[in-house]
Amino acid sequence: MAYQKRTKDQLAARVAQDIHDGAYVNLGIGMPTAVANHIPAGREVILQSENGILGMGPAPAEGQEDYDLINAGKQPVTLLPGGAYFHHADSFAMMRGGHIDICVLGAFQVSARGDLANWSTGEPGAIPAVGGAMDLAIGARQTWVMMDLLTKKGESKVVERCGYPLTGIACVKRIYTELCTLECTPQGLKLVDTVDGLTREELEKLINLPIAA
Amino acid sequence: MIDKIAPSIAEALAGVKDGSTVLIGGFGTSGIPGELIDGLIAQGAKDLTVVNNNAGNADYGLAALLKSGRVRKIICSFPRQVDSHVFDDLYRSGKIELELVPQGNLAERMRAAGAGIGAFFCPTSYGTELAKGKETREIDGKQYVLEYPIHGDVALIKAEAGDRWGNLVYRKAARNFGPVMAAAAKHTVASVYEIKQLGELDPEEIVTPGIYVGKIVKIPRVATQAGGFRKAA
């Protein structure tokens, strides 16, 4: 049976569906940022930004940009009523101290047991940059990854062992992709869901790894 | 009488020596003390180690300082940005040393310096390339990496307002590294847009108490520039 991939918006909505009312959430740069636009009505979620913001709001209207108020991607944002500013050491203490319920990050690779590689492809000559990725990955109570399951060449980004330099060990709890949602456990992958028409067995073949039902 | 208000940036920065470690506040362009960096370029100190979250935007401010050839080493978490070409060229041609530090470790290592902590065990980066060669320890079943403080000889930070005792308040997310760097350096210079009389800043709302600040300098207010990201077409 044929299946349809989740669109970027559908994927963001799928992640947002699992964020509980009252959650403190940090959304990584790139794809995860879109999750903010899909929080289900009636749920109040507080967004944290690593540069010292709780209660981060959407982008300002054109002409209202204030570059003292930016997100982790350095783009202008707003502050919701009730929001707060704090300094960098407090911001990262908040992460490491286990006060952030969920962080959603992009990734190059995730291992079946939840090792994360998302900061460097290790290419010689590339300029390394890590930012807050390592702090977030191990600090949040739950780290979720949001990414395409397959590379442009069709290789699985969910792997037995990461080939790229690691960001953190056994830190990813869930992987949300265009085809499926997976849980990383000490025993390996566990299926949460797939898109309509894709079976667990077909998915196992696609990524060449066992997935527990 | 205590008067930390310097009449000019040049006077506030007069004592910066060659070989200094200079902590520079800011996250991208938010909170970056551009006027103080220009002052440091004019002052001429060389062989500097600079600590900032990034490594400069476009060709002004921190990027201009790097371009001046007076920075031997930069300690930062995220040098690569869409407009970091000055750093990129220096790094690729081997003209600047880079110590890449996870952002939370960068903040906490400076916090430790300001708080008199000799070193601390932190879970960040355990098992990664950035922990290579560092001492580790298992505490209550969890793995940690030993991290040492980063002390500054000088800190250059941007605040919103201050008074002659050096008390500071900041503006929005431009606060970022300011309070941590102020405490971590021997000599902290803050630029402010407004100078207040003693008692005018609400003591309940002062973010950096003057004890951490050496000099404050008033500068004309200029809107913070965009930087570090690709604007949508």
From TrEMBL, chain A:
This is 3-oxoacid CoA-transferase subunit B. Keywords: Transferase. NCBIfam families: pcaJ_scoB_fam. It comes from Ramlibacter montanisoli. The keyword Lipid biosynthesis does not apply. PANTHER family: KETOACID-COENZYME A TRANSFERASE, SUCCINYL-COA:3-KETOACID COENZYME A TRANSFERASE SUBUNIT B-RELATED. SUPFAM superfamilies: NagB/RpiA/CoA transferase-like. The keyword Protease does not apply. Belongs to the 3-oxoacid CoA-transferase subunit B family. It comes from the Bacteria. GO terms for molecular function: CoA-transferase activity.
TrEMBL record, chain B:
The keyword Protease does not apply. One of its GO terms (molecular function) is CoA-transferase activity. It comes from the Bacteria. Keywords: Transferase. It holds the Pfam family CoA_trans. InterPro entries: 3-oxoacid_CoA-transf_A, CoA_trans_fam_I, CoA_transf_BS, NagB/RpiA_transferase-like. The keyword Transferase applies. Belongs to the 3-oxoacid CoA-transferase subunit A family. This is 3-oxoacid CoA-transferase subunit A. It comes from Ramlibacter montanisoli.
